Amino acid sequence: MSATRPLSMRPAALVIAAFLLLGAFWGSWNMSLPSIQHSFHLSDTALGVLLALAVGTAGFAGAIVGRLARRFRSLWLLSGILAVWGILAVPPELTHSAAVFSVAFAGAQIAAGCVDAAMNAPATVAYRDEPSSLVRFHALFNVGAIAGALFATSMLASGVSWRWLWPITGVVIILTSVVGFLGSPGVALDADDRPHSPSLSAVGESAPSEPRLDRSLRDDGLLVFLFVFALAEITEGGAFTWGILYLRQHLSAGILVGTGAYVIGHAVAALARGFGGPLLKTVPVTRSFAVGAVLCAVGLIVEISVSQAWVAAAGLTLATAGTSFFWPLVMSTVARISSSPARAVGNFTAAGYAGWVAGAPIVGAISDHWGASAGLLFMALVCVVVVIAVFAGTVPADPETIPNRPVG
Fold it and tell me: pTM of the predicted model, to two decimals?
């Protein structure tokens, strides 16, 4: 038996801070998005392509970080990536060129994707046997998004340019990384997580040669689930972005209405994760995943079916609450089933970003050619496809129900 101490069942303060900061980053982005689109004269298609390129490269970077997390001390790795992210969060606001902004924004997103993978790996492994706790823990992202949205709205409503938002956030991120670096270095994840697994090396040893990525996922029964998750992330990634733009630009809702919908949506998502997480102890993962997709589809259809901004905002709230379970449900399931949890988390993080990549330009192009409501309808139809895929058996059963599957 390995003499190393197992990873604590409570993630470190640095991991908590990273979840909050990433949420704040996206909260300020979504609130300032109409201003950014206007400043650089971006069409919906151009915005979608920009998001696709930036988030796509971020996904690949996140997959690499997920693999590095197996070999390096997790908190030092996260601290270093946070420092890089804080620095790269500043340049996008300093330019008036759309081309330069796109490159700088991509750099910030790559760093954010690395932070995403680096913070999810220790959090997911810590709660791999407690999906309800993991779902509750992911509510921190929603809390951060609410704080970021309220901060951005207060600044914008006071006449402050959106160009000040990320530099302020970058300073906070850098200070957080410094404090984190001075703390505990953490542990190498997989080595401590599965000490009895023959496919994992001990702490400090180089990893042995392993099967190809697709074979590893197939052997663990996760390959098809990877694609279903990527499909679901089209809606989780797009609901807030395009839903808020629809409210602001096509229903002429003011910034307070847009912010209200965003904040309420994340508040409902946080409450759903906080109070709904314990239900995972009795409700199968497959059913929870399907219910989330149905709620998202219904919410999006409500948003595009009414002319009153507040009713549409309520529909957006329902949609985002439905998607709130996707990421933690998947990560928890993957961590319990996979023979290499940290690497699998990195791979699924990359797949989640790939869903954003695929969806952003498609929804943007549909919005430009057939109207914003058509873009939201497309995402609702994607949710329907996800539900069909779930009932077709693509979502793995809980580990306890899989014969001869070691869980501990």
Answer: 0.70
